[in-house]
Design a protein that fits this description.
- The chain has two domains: 8-228, P-loop containing nucleotide triphosphate hydrolases (Rossmann fold, 3-Layer(aba) Sandwich); 229-261, no CATH class.
- Helices cover 34% and strands 24% of the residues.
- The protein contains nine helices and ten strands.
- It has helices at 48-55, 81-87, 103-112, 118-131, 147-159, 177-192, 204-207, 240-251, 256-259, and strands at 8-18, 24-33, 37-41, 63-68, 71-72, 88-92, 165-169, 196-201, 213-218, 221-226.
- The strands form two sheets. The protein has a six-stranded mixed β-sheet with strand order 6-7-8-3-9-10, with helices on both faces. It has a four-stranded antiparallel β-sheet with strand order 2-1-4-5, covered by helices on one side.
- Helix 3 (103-112) packs parallel to helix 5 (147-159).
- The two termini are 14 Å apart.
- The structure holds adenosine-5'-diphosphate and magnesium ion (MG).
Length: 261
């Protein structure tokens, strides 16, 4: 159940970034509101990863501004970055789990560094692992899991501290079709729970069937920004087959807003 008002969770304002002679991001403007799901698509080299890196403030724009929660890119310092990272969950193509820690420990560690008490860690890790369908693998090491399972653990870890927004950079880039589907469904499910999600991917065809908002990045510029297809209220304006496919996906989850139509 998401609150009705639209609050900007992440805002990018007139961002430009020069990356040498051959590439620059130019006058990027985009806002992600609370509870929103956004695909950021564009061919390889379009600047998706660079833009995400600036959103989690691992890099700075040359000009313009990024605001995530109460953090502003022109004002963040080394001291405020850890606080910012708690507000953002990040998922990468290559999972980046700690190989010599179990599934459970990978998730527990993320909460430990934010000072969560052990009793709370156990309770929440159990809940999250159940949510991603991997509680039975909690004592396994990452290497014993399939790619899709590892990515689901990485996603569980990314949301362990209840971030306001989850950023995923090519989260399905290393996965087969079935695992890709599972990972995307998990991201939809997390979004349905109220977390804003931004997924960067080069796979334009894949994302077009989901009815979510799609932002197209081409040569470092936003070429198009297509709104989400809302199930219900604008049904009459939309292609029926796309809407019903999305409605099917949504009906698997308990989304009161959508079911009250
Ligand atoms: N640190 C960097 N220094 C110079 N060029 C870079 C750097 N990071 C990325 N690039 C270049 O910027 C462009 C955009 O890269 P990237 O953001 O990784 O695109 P995408 O994620 O859409 O594939 C590419 O041409 C890449 O080679
Ligand atoms: Mg990339």
């Amino acid at each position: 159940m998401s609150p009705p008002e639209h609050r900007i969770i992440a805002g990018i304002y007139h961002l430009s970034k020069d990356l040498g002679r051959h590439f620059s991001l130019t006058d990027i403007n985009l806002q992600v509101t609370n509870g929103e799901f956004v695909f950021l698509v564009g061919p390889s080299g379009a600047g998706k990863s660079t833009l995400l890196r600036m959103m989690y403030m691992d890099d700075r724009p040359d000009s313009g501004q990024i605001v995530v929660g109460s953090f502003v890119s022109t004002r963040v310092t080394r001291r405020t970055i850890p606080g910012l990272r708690r507000k953002i969950g990040i998922v990468f193509q290559d999972f980046r789990l700690i190989e010599d820690r179990t599934v459970f420990e990978n998730i527990a560690l993320a909460m430990k560094v934010t000072g969560t008490p052990m009793s709370k860690i156990k309770q929440r890790a159990t809940k999250i692992l159940t949510h991603v369908g991997l509680y039975h693998k909690r004592h396994d090491f990452p290497k014993a899991l399939s790619g899709g399972e590892q990515q689901r653990v990485a996603i569980a870890r990314a949301v362990a501290n209840r971030p306001a927004i989850l950023l995923a950079d090519e989260p399905t880039g290393n996965l087969d079709a079935v695992s890709t589907r599972n990972v995307l469904e998990l991201l939809f499910k997390i979004n349905a729970g109220g977390t804003a999600v931004l997924v960067a991917t080069h796979d334009i065809e894949m994302v077009q069937s989901f009815g979510q908002r799609i932002i197209y990045l081409e040569n470092g510029r936003i070429a198009r920004d297509h709104e989400k297809i809302f199930v219900g209220d604008v049904r009459d304006r939309m292609d029926e087959s796309r809407v019903s496919r999305r409605a099917e996906q949504l009906s698997e989850y308990d989304i009161r807003d959508e079911e009250n139509e």
